[in-house]
Amino acid sequence: MNLLQKLKRQPPGRIIALGFALVILIGSGLLMLPCSIQDGVTVHYIDALYTSTSAVCVTGLIAIDAGDTFTPLGQFFLGGLIQIGGLGVTAVGAGIIIAIGKKVNLKGRKLIKEAMNLDSGKGLIRFVKSVFLTTLVFEGIGALLSFTVFIHRYHPLKAAGVSLFHSVAAFNNSGFDILGGGTNLIPYQDNIMLNLVTCGLIVFGGIGFLVIRELVDARLRWKKLSMHAKVVISVSAVLILSGAVMLKLTENISWMGAFFNSISARTAGFSTYPLKEFTTPGLLVLIVLMFIGASPGSTGGGIKTSTFFVLLQGLKSAATNSGEKAFHYAVPKDSFRKASVITFLALGVVIGGTYLMMVMDPGVALRDALFEVTSAFGTVGLSTGITPDLSIGSKLLSILIMYIGRLGPLTIATLWHFSVGDRVRYSEGNIAIG
Amino acid sequence: MNLLQKLKRQPPGRIIALGFALVILIGSGLLMLPCSIQDGVTVHYIDALYTSTSAVCVTGLIAIDAGDTFTPLGQFFLGGLIQIGGLGVTAVGAGIIIAIGKKVNLKGRKLIKEAMNLDSGKGLIRFVKSVFLTTLVFEGIGALLSFTVFIHRYHPLKAAGVSLFHSVAAFNNSGFDILGGGTNLIPYQDNIMLNLVTCGLIVFGGIGFLVIRELVDARLRWKKLSMHAKVVISVSAVLILSGAVMLKLTENISWMGAFFNSISARTAGFSTYPLKEFTTPGLLVLIVLMFIGASPGSTGGGIKTSTFFVLLQGLKSAATNSGEKAFHYAVPKDSFRKASVITFLALGVVIGGTYLMMVMDPGVALRDALFEVTSAFGTVGLSTGITPDLSIGSKLLSILIMYIGRLGPLTIATLWHFSVGDRVRYSEGNIAIG
Ligand SMILES: [K+]
Ligand SMILES: [K+]
Fold first, then answer.
1. Transmembrane region positions (chains A, B) (predicted)?
2. Mean pLDDT calculated for residue range A235-263
3. Which of A3, A33, A427, B281 places its Cα 20 to 30 Å from the Cα of A156?
4. Cβ atoms within 10 A of the Cβ of B191, count?
């Protein structure tokens, strides 16, 4: 067919963007099926589209509570959309092709390289396989451990389903739950086991498959790790710690709650405390964490930890008139430029989105709108509670912002231009940005 | 003296910073003198310090109304502080040295170069003279035209004083008034003459002395202007126009009001409408305008129009994979980096300041705190009205932020490091940043 030929000749970025859009649309259809929706519940298409986007973009913002709205089949669809979104449409496609024994052609390899933020095409198929294996192992262990918690509340079959859903949701940093009542994990705020399991899944899911593989290959020895892995791990640790301390300073929560919310804000989006009771300074801390987000090549969003690191190094270098260094490597010259571009595009999306939301919903305060839009952009899913009451315009806006956030603002900005040659991803000093 | 010797050996940035701090302290003392304060009014030192900082940093945020608090002598001191702040401590110092017929030595020339954001030391003395002359001409004409307005309300002597003060305040983009009642220019919101005169003074004061001189030299012919002048004039025009249109979209104000507030937000800080009645989207537009601010080498603050332009060019270049151009010149490679550094430092100051203000004054909403802090950083002086009721901590914070905003965040960041060689100001393509 002519259309298919034309599609095949498109640059990778466009094909990936189209793939995500297609999965979102199919997902919204699946969630609208009568067998997906509980008896007596009405779902408007805008909310199905919102939920599907939120799932595929692993955001977790909810206009309708998944536990109270969807049947087990609908929740299964939702879990599937989260898994596809978390792995990425391309990886899932490649996985299927590999699984049925077909060969991945050159075009396909290019797509995978672009989608997974890789620097070279070497060992690509092996990498895709390891991504699937990693996901399976983490989600399996996560589900088993979660089961020990949920079995106390539900009958075994339901507990198994809830555990599996929770593990998938947590590892993919999606923030969804099917516990009902719209309270997310608040009932479990003091359950140590569920706090630990969820945080573990979030952290490994958000650190990136490349780094997980490096950690396995290096058998956890710090010195053997690349600069990229060291940067990502250090920045994540510093952000988690400082976020927790700052939240503890202004909010009336336990230390476990402070750590959980600090970890969760950087893209996972689960909450164990009602955010609408947070102080505005506390929410501002969460907004900054949400904006920075997870690490590249992970299931998470935001401008990314490595981008944030390169920005800080650039500022330090400007203030001290010295070169940019990190762990005895020089930061590549081009990195600061790319990090800046990504951050400014992200700021533009967040500020513009906040403006438009407040114009379309005049009753919404700056703090709530900024929080909601940053959450959508960082594919976080936390909310001060305004989501269900937003106008259709603001919901469509959130859908667009989640989509931009999942694909990355730079990918979106370059969609209209066929870039000659590949854009630099991993440069000299080996650090992935965005 | 040993101390003086040591001081002389300091890099220009530190001497300038010290000079500003000294003038602020002296100013706060002058404003505390009994002869400066009206009978029956009590002024706390924190408010005198706040007012002096606000004047020297040409901000115009007021904790106490100048018209209701100070005597004509106090108001004269205030006007003097604004004039010194607007011209810059260095230029005033150089002006005095030149006026008494002394020679400016090499060290002094270096200081002037740094303070006035110049690219070379050529014609420095001539430039300082032209700066004084320009100021005198504009403020003289401004005062005469303002007099035709104020004579209808005050007796001639008072009208002359008010006119002179207003002209100085407007040309130096300070936003102060001595009309009393804390209503700034709201009583004159429909006075066409005062709107035009004030806008004219603000625009020329904010466009930079270099550009004014270029306009005179080129006899207003566009083609003869440098890239820097073209950029600054175009960006200012686009910002004024789009700001006015956006304000008109969400606020219930006249077109003249929309233009006045759009012009005034980019660092002048006069208001003809009560800002606390503005919608939040409207305030967000003002916040963005305040953050961008005026042009380099002017009396205004913010990250500067040229910085904003270079950022936009960098984003465009990244999205289209093309070089950065402007008016048939290539934008120098280093510009984007410097513009990014300045903008991130500015964002850090604004976000950090907003956080601290909300921690110290828990009752203040995000929208008001963000507005107040951006206003202080951009040395704008607009406020939603929270200034007088802020805690001492928040007032000290505002004082610090006004000071950082006036000197520029990059100057502050490099204060602790002696930079080897001069930092690049004007590079290849000739565009001044920050
Ligand atoms: K999420
Ligand atoms: K001002």
1. 15-33, 45-64, 76-100, 131-151, 192-216, 228-247, 283-303, 339-357, 399-418
2. 90
3. A33
4. 16
